Amino acid sequence: MFKRSDESLIAKALNGDQHAWQQLVNRHQSALFYFGLRLLGSREDANDLLQDVLMVLCRNLGQYRGDSSFKSWLFGIANYRAMDMLRRRKYSDNDDELAEMPADAPGLPEQLASDRQQKQVQQQLRNLPAEQRLVLELKFYQQFTFDEIASQLAISSNTVKSRFYAALDKLRLQLEDNHVEQSANF
């Protein structure tokens, strides 16, 4: 079946086509939810973020100019709203919420095959500063380029790369330390 582009769905939705609006929402809501879950740490916060982004989208869909992909524009809104939520709320440190995330969540990196490794990485991600966690989320899980991330966050590509590689170094060190501790316990 022919898959309509986001742009054609946007045009139809702006003309009042509810079916086109629903297709547009269905196409992106899962990725937005898992983005929120990984970044914010709880299903409740992820649902709040999703609803907030969809409300902003409903009110501001006509402001999309097409300068970047719709997905990039949409995740720019989600980035802003998620960072605002992180500033307003104390970050939830709930391991159970992340453990419930399905293995077939969109965009999970292939190198994190085992559930145990995924859980360890998710735990260590929560220890990163929000700016670094956000860049990793956008690069690994949403598969944006450094330039797209820079555009979304209104920072330079070099700053994005710096945050990305700093986060990877911190994760590597944390995971190595965790592995050494686990080996010592045997």
Description:
With 186 residues, the chain is mostly helical. The chain has one domain: Orthogonal Bundle (Rna Polymerase Sigma Factor, Chain: A), CATH 1.10.1740.10. It contains nine helices and no strands. Helix 1 crosses helix 2 and helix 3 (43-60) packs across helix 4 (70-88). The protein is elongated. The chain starts with 5 loop residues before the first helix and ends with a helix. GO terms for molecular function: DNA binding; sigma factor activity. InterPro entries: RNA_pol_sigma-70-like, RNA_pol_sigma-70_dom, RNA_pol_sigma70_r2, RNA_pol_sigma70_r4_t2, RNA_pol_sigma_r2, RNA_pol_sigma_r3/r4-like, WH-like_DNA-bd_sf. Belongs to the sigma-70 factor family. ECF subfamily. Keywords: DNA-binding, Sigma factor, Transcription, Transcription regulation.
Number of strands: 0
Helix percent reads: over 70%
Major sheet, described briefly? none
The low-pLDDT segments are 91-99, 107-113
Count of the domains:
1
Class derived from helix and strand content? mainly alpha
